[in-house]
Amino acid sequence: NGFFTYDPGFVSTAACDSAITYIDGGKGVLLHRGFPIDVLAEKSDYLESCYLLLHGELPTAEEYEAFKRTITNHTMVHESMHQFFEGFHHNAHPMAKMCGAVGSLSAFYHDDLDITNEKHRITAAYRLIAKMPTLAAMCYKHHVGQPVLYPDNSLGYAENFLRMMFGTPCEDYKVNPILAKAMDRIFLLHADHEQNASTSTVRLAGSSGANPYACIAAGIATLWGPAHGGANEAVLQMLEEIGTEDNIDAYIEKAKDKNDPFRLMGFGHRVYKNFDPRARVMKKTCDEVFAELGVENDPLLRIAKRLEKIALEDPYFVEKKLYPNVDFYSGIIMKAIGIPTDMFTVIFAVGRTVGWISHWHEMISQGTRIGRPRQLYTGYAERDYVEVKDR
Ligand code: CMC
What we know:
Blueprint: E1 21-24, E2 29-32, E3 35-36, H1 37-43, H2 46-55, H3 61-73, H4 80-86, H5 94-104, H6 106-109, H7 118-144, H8 157-166, H9 177-189, H10 197-206, H11 212-223, H12 231-242, H13 248-256, H14 277-293, H15 299-313, H16 315-319, H17 327-337, H18 344-366
Antiparallel strand pairs: 1-2, 2-3
Helix pairs in contact: 2-9, 2-18, 3-7, 5-7, 5-11, 7-8, 7-18, 8-9, 9-14, 9-17, 9-18, 10-11, 10-18, 11-18, 12-17, 14-17
Residues 9, 196, 227-229, 231, 255, 263-270, 320, 322, 325-327 line the site of carboxymethyl coenzyme *A.
Keywords: Acyltransferase, Transferase, Tricarboxylic acid cycle
GO molecular function: citrate synthase activity
GO biological process, one term: tricarboxylic acid cycle
């Protein structure tokens, strides 16, 4: 009818219907296919939750075994990908490499893909879930100049990833099971979060009929920003910069200062106006990892906990309902695992891949229209062209 609503930042616009993830931001509730995130973190694991997100139900024992077998079938990437990585500067940010590497999968798996065929869509989803850890580890190995390790399909998802990250051909690398469990939980806690910026990007890209590998690459690009997935990297940098508990107050004041662009990283959320339930699980996981590793009084964890306490009592953060989000504690755990800071957002991308591809699959199944936002035009009315000699 010619009327449309103006909603910059999509604060109050629902652009789709979805049965995958439910969030009640006021109450701090997050459900995947009806199951609370803390229950999944406690009782499920990443791959089972992938099945749940993608297929809508928890798998039976047989379905789960078959799913794991299929995922492990797809863990390798085409050998040409090794040369592809050689094209990057070794010092490039791993997220830059991930955007390129994942986008390039369309060059290998595009021709036989019919996105209108459900089986093809599921195969693309399985390929992506399986290959993301391999590509993420390749980014890291390329950066440190070590040979790439092929996946070991006898290992679990997170265990295999950690072996590809830290193992070398010279030794029989054994992954610490405590760290593998923590890694798996980090993947799970990042698996989906309904219509966040990167998922919306994947949906918008996919709405044109673009192939899923290119759509996921678009999601990775969106995730990179510090307001979104890049926040986990920024949190750790902030905690290291704060350095000692004495400096916390100054950073709190900086975050409150309207004339200073600095924000408390890992705090605040568009939807949660209460605790982010993922942050609660992440904090608990952090304590468990340090306890099991026998690390007492980790300086970064101490600063993070103190910072959280001060912020939660400060009227600025209380009035604006700013609570710790998923990124606040994840970096501290990843650091304990030995993952370098610039790989943190890559880890987020690995975990989120199932969410992106589940939304893409759901959208295509629904038979969507191309996404095409409107605008309020604020430029010139029609005017006369002025010849260059007269300007
Ligand atoms: N520190 C200080 N002030 C903040 C913060 C913060 N972390 N977050 C929001 N505010 C203030 C903001 O200045 C604004 O104040 P005012 O109303 O006086 O202008 C008010 O709170 C509302 O903020 P907003 O920017 O309008 O809220 P938004 O929904 O557009 O942005 C956000 C949400 C997550 C981008 C923002 O809270 C932020 O920048 N947080 C820090 C970055 C971060 O941790 N991002 C990870 C998000 S969770 C995981 C993910 O999505 O990847």
